[in-house]
Write a structure and sequence with these properties.
Layout lengths: L6 E6 L4 E6 L3 E6 L4 E6 L12 E6 L5 E5 L3 E5 L7 E3 L14 E6 L5 E5 L2 E5 L5 E6 L11 E6 L5 E5 L4 E5 L5 E5 L8 E5 L2 E6 L2 E2 L1
Antiparallel strand pairs: 1-2, 2-3, 3-4, 5-6, 6-7, 7-8, 9-10, 10-11, 11-12, 13-14, 14-15, 15-16, 17-18, 18-19
Length: 207
């Protein structure tokens, strides 16, 4: 409906479907032949999104779709697509979402869901109860850093990179984080698992 670009959010190769988003118009689901299957407009109505600033769209093991919205938490769309449910941080609840700006989503082999958000990292069970929260400013993640990407190491631990820093954090089960710093002092943008190696990419360099 406008000249703003569409961003690829998810490609479902098995179903032959593509999810695209537009900041002003919302989220769209197309078949690969270009036919529109569904849309979630930017609106305050029941079946809509409060913002088009979408950080991720991912399927869940139970058939739900999770939609990360920067500044607006997460919206959960069930398989029938009829009603969206909001997951938001609750300041008085230490076991709620760590921040209202989810940036990264990861599902482990145990089907637990990991969310990196502006306020920290949350580990959520498949029944959507929060198992553990690693907050920024507590337990080793500095308050001035923003959680960015998550990945599992060959040691079974989860590793977190923070936005535009050279730091990598290993999330410990006691809620603390162990810090690793790149010797090259580059800003880490991504982590990838390659066999027993966890590759860290930043500014065109990989270690």
């Amino acid at each position: 409906q406008n000249d703003e670009p569409l961003f690829l959010q998810y490609f479902d190769e098995k179903q032959g479907e593509i999810w695209l988003s537009n900041f002003y118009d919302g989220l769209f689901r197309f078949r690969v032949d270009g036919s529109l299957l569904d849309s979630l407009p930017v609106t305050q109505q029941d079946r809509g999104l409060p913002t088009g600033n979408i950080s991720f769209v991912r399927p869940m093991p139970n058939g739900d779709w999770w939609i990360g919205l920067y500044g607006e938490g997460i919206r959960v769309m069930p398989p029938d697509g009829k009603h969206l449910r909001a997951i938001m941080p609750v300041p008085t609840d230490p076991n709620s979402l760590a921040g209202d700006a989810p940036l990264f989503h990861y599902v482990g082999k145990d089907k637990n869901i990991w969310i990196a958000s502006s306020g920290g990292v949350g580990k959520i069970s498949t029944v959507r109860s929060m198992l553990k929260v690693w907050e920024v400013g507590k337990g080793g993640i500095p308050a001035e850093e923003t959680p960015f990407t998550l990945n599992k190491g060959s040691d079974g631990k989860t590793y977190l990179s923070t936005y535009a820093t050279s730091h990598l954090y290993r999330l410990e089960e006691d809620g603390t984080a162990t810090t690793f710093t790149s010797p090259y002092q580059f800003a880490i943008w991504n982590t990838n698992r390659n066999g027993d190696m966890l590759e860290v990419t930043g500014n065109g360099t990989r270690v």
